Automatic annotation (TrEMBL):
It comes from the Bacteria. One of its GO terms (molecular function) is S-adenosylmethionine-dependent methyltransferase activity. This is Methyltransferase domain-containing protein. One of its GO terms (biological process) is methylation. Signal peptide: none annotated. Keywords: Methyltransferase, Transferase. It comes from Ramlibacter rhizophilus. Residues 91-187 form the Methyltransferase type domain.
Length: 311
């Protein structure tokens, strides 16, 4: 849920290197070697083996798997709160493959304008391919140095991206700088870590790598209301509001979701470097421990969401 350029940092570092949609590690999934009988026998997607199912880059898999199950429902909520209006100028920071950007474009219409900004060129390439007919300006750039003049936009949006920015205060100041006088910022952040992802982080740390475990927790690392208010106010925002809600996500079957999540995020890189026995052990543990989140056979996850706004 969030963003990086695909490089995982050591577990004693709080942040990933860049903002963007966090599926954008750009690693071709087809470069991974999956020879495990356990994986071949258990994981099938439309009668395809794991190797065949995840053949794209992580950015492509992010759009294919992560967006429908997680990003799209949260994007719809973010748009409802931010209410982009016809004729407005909108900026989506850390846009990834553009799920929020597309919805904003529909709201502002031909009279308005929309920019999708991300540091990850792989994510932007997918975004362009998904929306060839929408008049969206896709830009490569950082939240810490937004490449637009002051007072360019009426509304700035950011879905599940701020937690990955090394200089969060600086990024928020940039978002405020590019807002028009009466403009508004609306962003959302997941957290704290849901039990389902606590289990995933624990299993990744045991079987794969401590960096993989830390990535899962970083996704959910910015959810404290007081910290969010202080960041917003420190960046110069007024009328700051933080609304906490809980969203229940319906997810794919256990084993499908495990590998879809891995292949859609920077985890793909580090999991690819693990040996076959470790990958199989990871799957076995997850298949067992995630059963408590699928009592009727359908995997679900309740995620706390902080929706933050300011002017």
């Amino acid at each position: 849920m969030g963003s990086s350029d695909g490089r995982l940092v050591n577990s004693n570092h709080r942040q990933l290197h860049h903002i963007g949609s966090y599926g954008g590690c750009g690693l071709p999934a087809s470069s991974l070697v999956w020879n495990s009988d356990c994986l071949k026998e258990i994981i099938m997607t439309n009668e395809r083996t794991l190797e065949q199912a995840y053949v794209g880059t992580a950015a492509e898999n992010y759009e294919r798997y992560f967006v429908p199950s997680i990003a799209a429902p949260l994007a719809a909520d973010l748009i409802e709160v931010s209410t982009p209006r016809a004729g407005e100028r909108a900026l989506d920071v850390a846009c990834g493959t553009g799920v929020v950007t597309r919805l904003a474009a529909q709201r502002v219409g031909a009279e308005g304008s929309v920019v999708g900004l991300d540091v990850n060129p792989g994510m932007l390439a997918v975004a362009r391919s998904v929306t060839p007919k929408l008049a969206i300006d896709w830009r490569e750039g950082s939240a810490e140095a937004i490449p637009f003049p002051d007072a360019t936009f009426d509304v700035v949006l950011c879905q599940m991206g701020l937690q990955f920015v090394p200089n969060k205060l600086g990024a928020l100041r940039e978002m405020r700088r590019v807002l028009a006088r009466a403009g508004r910022l609306v962003l959302n952040l997941p957290g704290p870590t849901p039990p389902l992802f606590d289990v995933l982080a624990d299993a990744l740390g045991r079987h794969i790598d401590a960096r993989a475990s830390s990535f899962v927790h970083i996704v959910f690392s910015l959810s404290d209301e007081q910290e969010l208010r202080e960041l917003m106010q420190g960046a110069g925002f007024h009328h700051v509001e933080v609304h906490r809600t809980t969203t229940k996500l319906g997810l794919p079957p256990i084993r499908d979701f495990l590998w879809q999540y891995v292949f859609s995020t920077p985890l793909a890189d580090v999991v690819a470097k693990a040996n076959e026995a470790s990958r199989c052990a990871l799957e076995r543990e997850i298949a067992d421990r995630w059963q408590e989140f699928a009592p009727d056979g359908s995997l679900t996850c309740e995620v706390g969401i902080s929706t933050v706004s300011g002017r």
